[in-house]
Amino acid sequence: MKLSVGVFFGGFFAALGVLLFLVAFGTDYWLLATEVGTCSKAPEDAGGEKATFHHEGFFWRCWFSGNLGENNASMWNFWYTNQSPSKNCTHAYLSPFPLIRGEHNSTSYDSAIIYRGFWTVLMLLGVVTIVMASFFIICAAPFASHILYKAGGGFFIIAGVFFSLVVMMYVIWVQAMADLETYTNMKKMDCPDFAVYVRYGWSFMLAPVGVFFALLAGMLFLLVGRSIYLHSN
What we know:
By secondary structure, this protein is α+β, with helices and mostly antiparallel strands.
């Protein structure tokens, strides 16, 4: 009875972890930014000040124009129904947001590219590892194999560690590598009242929750594997 309960909750937490990891990996809302400046005026028939909204993730970095709401940094400005029908997107695999290479020091840009490359590799490793962990657990269930349960649990823990590093590296990248202060100062040369509001998006917020469930599932499956091993002897 206890073993079946452990398998059930392990599978439940594992499914949540896999789902959250894949959603965080596949959606482009790790970072949200709103650019506001008096040099960017709203049309006469539009209400409110004009702003440029940026959002980015693993695959894409997108931006679109819209009217500024009451809260400059509100996440609702980026909700699907509030986005412009036409927006521009570019690949973001190795694109340090929101820098433009021709306007910044090439050394700092190249450093950011290398850092972003490590982040990309860890992201891919995390996704591959958690998919492999799921495969081991699916194979373990029909045969009640303690080896497969332990392997699956170990891979879930490794995936959690990978995604923990992904989250920490992304925070460091945004705070230190993206050089938003230089970007803002450059824009203020043309727009004295220019301001950029940056915050983490829901894709980023899902990753730590997925880490928690992946680690919890991994520990449960290790316990299940150990319990099966003890009962088989």
